[in-house]
Amino acid sequence: MTETLTGDHPFGRELDMRELARRFAGCRQWEDRLRQIIMLAKALPALPEALKTPESLLTGCENRVWLGYQRLSDGTLHFFADSDGRIVKGLLAIVLAGVEGKTPQQLYLRDPLAPFDDLGLRAELSVSRASGLAAIAGRINAIVAASNAE
């Protein structure tokens, strides 16, 4: 897709992985990290209803999750996402910080969930949230593969 930018958000630009690392550095307990995740959810704008399509709706998540993308004219990918679950929306924001604005070639060899390892969060996620994140990573990997084939 190479249409006009929609589903705009600050992740990957103003809120990149360096900024997230800074925010999480002072969090010593899970409750502190969870508070940061909820703050990130608040920074991710609601997705316009027009982008909440059956094609962007993921299966395998407890909450409803939408994840879509656009290929921009410079070859980078713009991802947009939303969830009706507050914590899941914060987790989506972390994923977006790691993948937004990169080319398919840059994303090809990178695990979309690496930011959770970088931030020390993956081990603290419940089995159901980890399963939902696996579905999100699967969709991103499918998008990257399709974009590399274009």
TrEMBL record:
Keywords: Transferase
Entry superkingdom: Bacteria
Keyword ATP-binding on entry: no
Known EC number: 2.8.1.7
InterPro entries cross-referenced by the UniProt entry: Cysteine_desulfurase_CsdE, Fe-S_metab-assoc_dom
Active-site residue list: C61 (cysteine persulfide intermediate)
Domain Fe-S metabolism associated: from-to ranges: 22-141
EC top class named in words: transferase
The UniProt record lists the keyword Nuclease: no
GO molecular function list: cysteine desulfurase activity
NCBIfam families associated with the record: FeS_syn_CsdE (TIGR03391)
Family assignment from sequence similarity: Belongs to the SufE family.
Protein name: Cysteine desulfurase sulfur acceptor subunit CsdE
The organism of origin for this protein: Acerihabitans arboris
Gene this chain is encoded by: csdE
